Amino acid sequence: MTIETPPAGSPSPRRNPARAETESRGESTGLVLRGLATELRARGWEVREDGARGAVDVGPRSHSQQVLLRPHRGDLWWWMRWPPKEGMPPALAGVPISPVTRTADAARRVVGALAMSVDRT
User: Fold this and answer.
1) Which of 35, 83, 87, 92 is deepest in the core (most CB within 10 A)?
2) Within 13 A of 26's CA, how many CA atoms are on the CB side?
3) Contact predicate 59/65, CB 8 Å
């Protein structure tokens, strides 16, 4: 009987590649969300991460700003989303603010939007 060992770095025949990709994507999403959360906390904001939705809620719970990871122009972008107002089309309830790779830009824009809408006193 001959038993061969696959070369180092080869995927295990028992490992499901689709599952591995999903796990990797989940870990990446968590790191990206944590990066934005860290950037916003450094700017003095209360932040709650939600890895299941790919979102970060910024500001007091009573008046928070939601920032989401969503596709845009073929890449992953940060989107700001707020509760839709009566008569507003759902498509206008969110806007892309920066590519996911530009976390500091996203944080600056979120902070700017919150500064105009939230009283922090």
Assistant:
1) 35
2) 9
3) yes
Domain membership of residue 107 (yes or no) is yes
Q: How many domains does the chain have?
A: 1
Using a pLDDT cut of 90, give the percent of the chain over it: 39
Would you list the DSSP string of the chain? ----PPPTTPPPTTS-HHHHHHHHHHHHHHHHHHHHHHHHHHTT--EEEETTTTEEEES-GGG-EEEEEEEETTEEEEEEE-PPPTT--GGGGEEEEEETT-HHHHHHHHHHHHHHH----
The CA distances from residue 29 to 35, 45, 59, 78, in Å, are 10, 21, 21, 12
Domain with 80 in it: 18-117
Is 99 inside a domain boundary?
yes
d(CA 103, CA 85): 28
The tens digit of pLDDT for each residue in 74-111 reads: 899 999 987 667 777 766 678 899 999 999 999 999 99
